[in-house]
Design goal:
Layout (H helix, E strand, L loop, with lengths): L2 H6 L1 H21 L3 H24 L5 H24 L5 H23 L10 H22 L6 H30 L12
Length: about 190
């Protein structure tokens, strides 16, 4: 599939819609238009679910999509943490732990990829749990801002605490997996006997 056709693939268009929505989401949060921000967050979330579904159903999995989708997801989540911290909805220490984990993993992955040391970066179960709890945390924080009397205050506190614990723990697990995989002996190739 040509580069232009990859851009036109329906799943990639939805991913780009998510990226397009992001600045407006930031603006609405900074202006404290919580209802509109909540709606935009749901648009981004639904587009994330639909792009994967369409990629499978329409058989439009592309190389561009393999890179663009996780970048859009991480950009959306990281931006939400930064902006929600800026407006006082998420404590600074939670965002610092989340961003430190993500930046550390990104730097290690880039270094290993650039040096051709390791090319396979599949997320672990703990990493997936970390992402799920972050998504639930952001959604709960936004819900509490839109519906202050929703009774979710305790859930919000619990999820933010869980995020603060899971971020460094999953970063340590990732580092351990990388160290273990990099230090594995390279299988020797037997030379044919002459």
């Amino acid at each position: 599939m040509t580069a232009f056709r990859q851009f036109r693939a329906a799943p990639n268009l939805l991913t780009m819609l998510r990226l397009f929505v992001l600045p407006f989401l930031v603006i609405t949060i900074l202006d404290r238009h919580w209802g509109l921000a909540f709606g935009l967050l749901w648009v981004a979330g639904v587009s994330d679910g639909l792009d994967g579904l369409l990629a499978r159903k329409l058989q439009q999995r592309t190389t561009l999509g393999q890179y663009l989708d996780p970048i859009a997801d991480k950009l959306l989540l990281s931006t939400m943490f930064v902006v929600l911290t800026h407006v006082g909805a998420i404590p600074r220490y939670v965002t610092v732990l989340v961003l430190s984990r993500d930046i550390g993993i990104l730097l290690i992955a880039t270094l290993l990829f650039a040096t051709n040391t390791l090319r396979n970066f599949l997320p672990s179960k703990l990493g997936k749990l970390n992402t799920l709890v972050q998504i639930l945390g952001v959604l709960t924080v936004m819900t509490c801002e839109v519906f202050p009397r929703s009774g979710l205050r305790e859930l919000r506190i619990g999820l933010l605490w869980a995020i603060a614990v899971l971020a460094p723990v999953s970063a340590a697990e990732y580092a351990w997996i990388v160290i273990r995989r990099v230090s594995e002996p390279i299988p020797s190739v037997e030379r044919p006997r002459v």
